[in-house]
Amino acid sequence: MAQGSAKIRIARAEPLGHGARLLRIERADGAELGFAGGQYVIINTGVTLPGGKLAKRAYSLLSSDAEQRAVEIAVKRIGAGPGSNVLNDIAVGAELEWSGPWGKLRLPPGFSGRALAIATDTGITAALGVARSAAAAGAAQLDLLWLVESAEGYFLSERFVRERLPASVRLTVAGDFLPVGHPERPARACALVDQHLQHLSPAPYDAVLCAGDGAVIYPLRDRLTSLGAPEGSVLLESFFNNPLKKSA
Fold this sequence. Notes:
- The chain has helices at 82-89, 124-131, 134-137, 158-164, 185-200, 214-226, 243-247; strands at 5-15, 20-27, 40-48, 54-60, 70-76, 95-102, 114-120, 141-147, 170-174, 207-213, 234-240.
- By secondary structure, the chain is α/β, with parallel strands linked by helices.
- The chain has a six-stranded antiparallel beta sheet with strand order 4-3-6-1-2-5. The chain has a five-stranded parallel beta sheet with strand order 9-8-7-10-11, sandwiched between helices.
């Protein structure tokens, strides 16, 4: 996989739901990105934060990795956040700097087993990348469980997700999930995954990929391990509330 810094160009932009934007981006030099579905890039917005640091933000690549010269990201406007606002307002044709691809949330090449992708909130972008990857195309089964307060009016709608998923992927949306920060959120997520495993997929998965709220996906990994998930078979990508960063 190619890594390092490069110039990117905004090739196309369109509105997405409430306060969000879908950007199609490409390297300014026309080179391939060399990413696998589930990975992300870090975009330098060019904004200097208080203290002198540049506002750099990570975005998952939600388009198929069959195309490597132009990719899609979804950008949710977050309050007065400098990074998200720049990318929601930036003009088509503008150039920025990015680095990547990064991340290990991906199925291995030649995967032929059964996989489950679990996404909370904005983690659905990484799950979409996994589901649309070349590696996922060879899976015997791929299920996607999305835990979100409400898929209606969210920055990626359920319709948007379903339209982009391969027909072979089974999507389950838990659209009444507890809000971010709720103390019972991790327990509720574990209960929903238990329900999924018992009623929708009684056979074991060979790989589980979790993306989104770190306060939820780390307890989910512990729960899946306690249920017999093979060591190393549960992969995580924390979008926010990463407990490892807090303890560092």
